[in-house]
């Protein structure tokens, strides 16, 4: 049995390292699925299993653990950047500006409460306490990428004091952080006297209103000689307006025209367009006429279908400009991007890879599918080169030193901030440099979860040796208490302001809070009590900026406050 003992004890063995990580990650994933009060810790439980393994001496060479930790962090934040990149800059539009400003206020209050607790409860002469409080703050806001950025900054500033294990503070604050986010949003409901049924009713009424131009159907006789002999697609492109030709009468025969159908003088066509465009379209094509052949149309069945955007010409176009309801006679009920369900708002900008749920008559839904591409095969090919090119550029960008007077070390975005920023720009503008940046939701989630699992397992294993002394015999209870305060106080303040001053719907506030804290369990709870997609809209509006600021803030706090 010596071989088995050596497998678990020989830290230099590759088999030992692989076995250790596999055990920690698999156990962490399964234990993270256990729900208490309907809430689970999810993949973050890997951290606690890693701490337990490290406590009992199951570890590996520090250099190996660090390499896996840093590579996991890079992969994790890069895939997050690729996910949020396409919609990052759109969140600053008119509709999302207030929510993003409130999210920024939340982040500032998190930092403010952290410093207040630091000066009230801890010995400021001890160098390790502020880094530990930073770890506590990121556990309180359930933001793992921020923890990674903070750990990297700590090593840069305290190169000779690498025993500052901020993961212990993170682990102490995280469980109550998950519970506190949901609890604080519920407290806002009672503070502001919110009627849940009334909020749901208001959202339903708002969605029922027609957000697009009023539809107009008319029948035209082609009398413009310029049109004769040209295809329907050429004519529509020339008109440069949203218009759909649903029927064609040519020499007494009724047909369903396609883009390649050639039109002739005297043909009669059925056209659907926005009411505001009707006069201009009629002036170009020919006069409106009364017909009876449309009555022969057979009744159609209403269907719903998920359509994938694969037509690159659709990138950047907004939902309102496409006039799906008025021109195509269909409704877009929801949009999914990289696994995030988005509210189908008028200002949504489409990107390749978006999946939209369309409801309408089968014929009309098919027209929308042709317009958007809907060719899933185009999305199957993995774009590995783009990912690793982006990581290379991200590491170079994150390593650029920026000298700031008074700081002992130059400011760097590091292995977390650099790849994140480059990934955001690639996700949004990569097509301009001929890089295919689309990654399927499953591929993005897989790479992201692998990176996160490697990072959490590494952090836990490295922290395990001194965790018990830090928590049980040190300031563990203080970290728990201060973490809880960091979690709830900003939510109570910002949530009340959002409701009382800006009159946001309560469910939008719930989603925005979850996005500001980058906390999926809180979003899942909000979705469970809301009848619409308002929480997802709030979440997706503030999530990109919040994730970016939390990662950047982690490094700035350590470098500016601990590096002096």
From TrEMBL:
It holds the Pfam family Asp-Al_Ex. The keyword Acyltransferase does not apply. The chain crosses the membrane at residues 13-32, 39-59, 71-89, 101-122, 173-192, 380-404, 410-429, 450-468, 480-497, 504-523, 543-562. It is a multi-pass membrane protein. It is found in: Cell membrane. It comes from the Bacteria. Coiled coil: none annotated. One of its GO terms (molecular function) is monoatomic cation transmembrane transporter activity. Keywords: Cell membrane, Membrane, Transmembrane, Transmembrane helix, Transport. Residues 203-287, 291-374 form the RCK C-terminal domain. Belongs to the AAE transporter (TC 2.A.81) family. This is Transporter. It comes from Prevotella aurantiaca.
């Amino acid at each position: 049995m010596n071989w088995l003992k050596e497998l678990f004890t020989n830290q230099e063995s590759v088999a030992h390292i692989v076995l250790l990580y596999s055990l920690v990650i698999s156990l962490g994933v399964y234990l993270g699925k256990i729900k208490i009060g309907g809430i689970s810790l999810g993949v973050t439980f890997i951290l606690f299993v890693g701490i337990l393994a490290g406590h009992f001496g199951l570890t590996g060479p520090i250099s190996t653990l660090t390499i896996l930790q840093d590579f996991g962090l890079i992969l994790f934040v890069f895939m997050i950047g690729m996910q949020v990149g396409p919609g990052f800059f759109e969140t600053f539009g008119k509709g999302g500006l207030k929510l993003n400003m409130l999210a920024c206020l939340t982040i500032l209050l998190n930092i403010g409460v952290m410093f207040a607790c630091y000066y009230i409860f801890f010995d400021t002469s001890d160098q390790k306490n502020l880094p530990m409080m930073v770890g506590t703050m990121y556990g309180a806001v359930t933001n793992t990428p921020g923890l990674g950025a903070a750990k990297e900054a700590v090593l840069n500033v305290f190169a000779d004091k690498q025993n500052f294990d901020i993961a212990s503070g993170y682990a102490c604050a995280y469980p109550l952080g998950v519970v506190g986010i949901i609890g604080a949003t519920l407290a806002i409901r009672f503070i502001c006297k919110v009627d849940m049924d009334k909020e749901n009713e208001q959202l339903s009424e708002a969605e029922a209103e027609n957000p697009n131009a009023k539809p107009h159907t008319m029948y035209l006789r082609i009398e413009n000689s310029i049109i004769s002999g040209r295809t329907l697609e050429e004519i529509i492109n020339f008109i440069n307006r949203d218009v759909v030709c649903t029927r064609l009468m040519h020499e007494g025969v009724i047909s369903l025209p396609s883009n390649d159908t050639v039109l002739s003088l005297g043909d009669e066509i059925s056209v659907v367009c926005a009411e505001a465009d009707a006069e201009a379209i009629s002036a170009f094509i020919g006069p409106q006429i009364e017909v009876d052949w449309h009555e022969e149309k057979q009744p159609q069945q209403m269907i719903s279908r998920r359509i994938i955007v694969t037509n690159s010409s659709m990138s950047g176009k907004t939902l309102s400009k496409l006039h799906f309801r008025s021109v195509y006679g269909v409704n877009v009920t929801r949009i999914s991007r990289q696994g995030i369900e988005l509210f189908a708002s008028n200002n949504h900008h489409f990107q390749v890879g978006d999946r939209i749920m369309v409801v309408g008559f089968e014929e009309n839904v098919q027209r929308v599918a042709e317009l958007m591409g809907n060719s899933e095969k185009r999305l199957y090919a993995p774009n590995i080169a783009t990912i690793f090119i982006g990581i290379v550029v991200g590491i170079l960008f994150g390593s650029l030193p920026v000298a700031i007077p008074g700081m002992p070390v130059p400011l760097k975005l590091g292995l977390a901030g650099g790849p994140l920023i480059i990934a955001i720009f690639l996700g949004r503008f990569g097509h301009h440099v001929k890089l295919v940046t689309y990654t399927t939701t499953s591929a993005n989630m897989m790479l992201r979860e692998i990176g996160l699992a490697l990072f959490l397992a590494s952090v836990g294993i490295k922290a395990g040796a001194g965790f018990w002394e830090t928590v049980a015999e040190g300031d563990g209870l203080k970290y728990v208490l201060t973490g809880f305060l960091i979690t709830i106080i900003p939510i109570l303040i910002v949530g009340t302001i959002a409701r009382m001053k800006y009159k946001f719907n309560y469910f939008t506030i719930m989603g925005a809070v979850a996005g500001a804290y980058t906390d999926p369990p809180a979003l899942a709870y909000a979705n469970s009590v809301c009848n619409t997609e308002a929480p997802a809209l709030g979440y997706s509006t503030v999530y990109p900026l919040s994730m970016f600021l939390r990662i950047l803030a982690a490094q700035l706090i350590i470098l500016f406050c601990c590096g002096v």
